[in-house]
Amino acid sequence: MPLESRPLGRGFAREIVGLRLWESQDEGTIDELRALWAAHPVLVFRRQALSEDELAAFSARFGPLERTVRTDWASPARSEVTLISNLKDAQANPIGGLGDGELQWHSDQSYMMQPATGAMLYALELPPEGGRTYWVDLAAAYAGLPDRLKRAIDGKRGIFSYVKRLAGYQGVDRVISEEAKRQTPPVLHPLAHTHPVTGKKALYLDWTTTIGIEGMDEASGQALLDEIYEAATRPEFVYRHDWQIGDALLWDNGFTMHRREPFDPAARRLLKRTTMFLSCDRHIVPEGILAAAD
Ligand SMILES: O=C(O)CCC(=O)C(=O)O
Q1: Domains of the chain: residue spans and CATH
Q2: Pocket residues for ligand 1 (CB within 6 Å)?
Q3: pLDDT for 115-151, tens place per residue?
Q4: I need a labelling partner for 227 at 20 to 30 A (CA). Which of 31, 159, 184, 192 fits?
């Protein structure tokens, strides 16, 4: 029986109805999800009850799971599961990453040479207010760009740096190991890609890591990026997710960015995240190169 699904928000996000992700899914169901995912970069599954192993098992159907450079945010029980939380342990150390502050528009791991572009977030504890997450459809955003801006970024590569991302974090999230530093030199990625399934062009952006454009001086590169970000994040391209406990949300970082509202630091919030290396046969997967040293 075909999957039941319905549009959410303005339509680029879609809710998949009735799937129990803790059960093993047959290949036909996964194929249907892959087809839906190509057209709808955000898929939402409500009312889930998943162990870390079940979350990892479902995510891994779409590609090998990543262990991110943020080993300090990994679940002690399952290293491919990242804890996104403001909760602290008995020694007052954060149990995971990303705290309670605002997170600006970003695409996970854009600072890596070969980013794991698939991601899944599963909500276990939520604050009564705030902490909503927004996704922007960068294929629709590309289509909506004036021709002048399309021409301006044609063939151009952005410079993506984790150092910029870190500067926007709070507290200990800013601190990374020497090994993580070694793994995250600035990289270059094309600013536009073509989706291998839909044939649609899409922007590849991350406001929290882009520090310039290859071959352009700093001021003109920044000015062009500012214009692109403003045009790309217009409300008509955005889906706002109002989290419910038990939501599992699968998204494709290859043609979206997301951002999060801050929330009351005294409230509890816990989500678990996996990231997956998706295949370039079915997804936009930026192939980065090292940025030249200054
Ligand atoms: O906490 C959230 O809702 C979003 C987390 C996030 O931005 C991420 O996992 O990259």
Answers
A1: 4-281 (3.60.130.10)
A2: 84, 98, 103, 108, 133, 258, 260, 271, 273
A3: 999 999 999 999 999 999 999 999 999 999 999 999 9
A4: 184
